[in-house]
Write a structure and sequence with these properties.
alpha/beta; Nucleotidyltransferase, domain 5; 3 domains; five-stranded mixed β-sheet
Length: 504
């Protein structure tokens, strides 16, 4: 009898956060549904400081980031790809050469890196923080100061009720108001005032929801909490009075680097003024009495989100269902097309190699089928264009920007003229595989044009990479002359895109 051995590292997960100030990685082991941290690594890359006046990452910042990811890659090279999540946040959302960076970054890390929107960043932060807290009925305000953005979330247990991402971070505010080494009262007041102005549009929503406790996550808030404690400026957690004492000590010093403030680490010196201004402004605007510091943040949220995708509920499924509801999509038609798309996919995925460690192409096809009529909520005329726009620009929890762009490209091409150029912005192999997925979606949409739900089995033959043959059972096709005509039209449309379609 041969003894079987478990696949190595099958319960090891890694999460990587390419932040505007620092790159973080956490590696954890899943044990009976709980995470056990087994390694952490952080490097202060200061990507946001590496943006030039035109919005491009400078060659030095670019290189520093790639070299860091090469080191990260060494730590995770033996972890299964579907158990690694890497995301980029504010600076990579905004940098004009982020696509070039991500292309090289994937090679350096050995895994794909997804850019996430501000609200998705906030959702993952809340998920990470919530998993580090006891379950109770408290309403929580969670705040996270990054290098280029600050997130605010209201939630209870693992459910959020409000997500906000603002365009201010410890690096960007420091650059704008504290470019000179000395910190003056005038500069600090200007910085706090500017931050209050950014927070104010969100004030009513946050205060209406209310909270029982406030929690802060990530490096800046942790650093401020440590400084206040080490200097006896706050007896428990972070308070406004304590931060005023830190502010006064910073103003009184000739240089923050030589201020001698207890608990202030050298790595935090270049960004602390901006971070403190944001936190003071938040306390003043939201009337916060005290804030506790969370040990968890975005990285932990990524791991828990990955576990959810693998073993429980994928939040993206919830987002698709919610979009179907608010866009009043015909669920019967959407589900019928999704089923036929799945039937075609199962026959095509081996020939077209529609599988990849970083993506589930089958899920992308399913979501596209369920959302393809989204644009009808606006108008039937040009609805495929409306569908593409709505899905790419909607806040869909769990989806990265690239995933929404992939869906958008498929929705744009699910009928009418096939425009293959829209796939050129995606890196290989996604650019070609998305074309194949779109062909399957187009066929399913054509077959269900009569909005029938009872479709017989269809045999799909991939005779070569660009040749497709459909065979309908039970003489179904001759009894559906409109479908025959539609397939004639579709054959012409696909021929213009380099595919050959035949059927019987």
């Amino acid at each position: 009898m041969t003894e079987t051995t478990a696949e190595p590292n099958q319960n090891i997960y890694a999460a990587i956060d390419l932040g505007s100030n620092s790159f973080h990685m956490v590696i954890a082991r899943e044990v009976h549904g709980q995470l056990q941290i087994i390694d952490k690594h952080k490097e202060m890359i200061r990507l946001r400081s590496g943006l030039d006046k035109k919005g491009y990452l400078t060659p030095q910042a670019f290189q520093n980031g790639i070299e860091c990811l090469e080191r990260f890659g060494q730590l995770i090279k033996n972890i299964p790809s579907h158990q690694v999540r890497a995301v980029g946040t504010n600076t990579l959302r905004n940098a004009k050469n982020s696509h070039e960076f991500l292309s090289q970054a994937r090679q350096a890390l050995g895994h794909s890196i997804q850019i996430i929107a501000g609200q998705e960043e906030a959702r993952l932060i809340y998920l990470g923080v919530a998993h580090g807290l006891p379950q109770n009925d408290e309403q929580r305000l969670v705040m996270d100061i990054g290098g280029g953005s600050t997130e605010y979330i209201i939630g209870q247990n693992f459910t959020y009720s409000h997500l906000t991402s603002t365009e201010m971070g410890c690096v960007s505010i420091t650059q704008k108001f504290f470019s000179k080494e000395d910190i003056t009262e005038k500069r600090m007041n200007k910085a706090i005032s500017a931050c209050r102005q950014i927070i104010r549009p969100h004030l009513l929503k946050l205060t209406r929801l209310g909270w029982d406790c406030a929690l802060g996550a990530s490096g800046t808030i942790k650093a401020i909490g440590t400084i206040l404690k080490d200097n006896d400026w706050s007896p428990s957690g972070i308070t406004l009075d304590g931060m005023y004492q830190l502010r006064d000590a910073m103003i009184a010093s000739d240089s923050l680097a030589t201020s001698g403030i207890q608990g202030l680490k050298d790595e935090r010196v270049p960004v602390l003024p901006g971070g403190l201004a944001i936190l003071i402004a938040t306390f003043e605007e939201l009337k916060i009495d005290q804030m506790q510091v969370s040990s968890n943040a975005l990285r932990e949220g990524l791991i828990f989100d990955t576990l959810g995708r693998l073993f429980a509920e994928d939040v993206r499924e919830t987002s698709v269902a919610a979009a179907q509801a608010w866009l009043k999509i015909d669920l019967q038609q959407a589900n019928a097309i999704a089923r036929t798309s799945e039937m075609l996919y199962k026959q095509a995925h081996n020939s077209w190699q529609l599988h990849d460690g970083d993506y589930s192409y089958e899920k992308l096809l399913n979501w596209a089928a369920r959302l393809h009529e989204a644009g009808m909520a606006l108008s039937y005329k040009r609805y495929r264009h409306h569908s593409a726009y709505l899905i790419e620009n909607s806040e869909l929890a769990g989806f990265t920007q690239e995933e929404k762009q992939m869906l958008s490209a498929m929705l744009l091409n699910h009928r009418g003229k096939f425009v293959p150029d829209v796939y050129d912005k995606f890196d290989a192999p996604h650019n070609n595989k998305l074309k194949y997925l779109t062909v399957l979606l187009r066929l399913a949409v054509r077959i269900h044009r009569g909005r029938e739900t009872d479709i017989p089995d269809i045999l799909l033959y991939i005779e070569d990479e660009r040749s497709i043959r459909l065979q309908f059972e039970n003489d179904w096709l001759p009894e559906h002359p409109l479908t025959q005509l539609d397939l004639d039209v579709e054959a012409g449309r696909l021929a213009a895109a380099g595919f050959e379609l035949t059927y019987q």
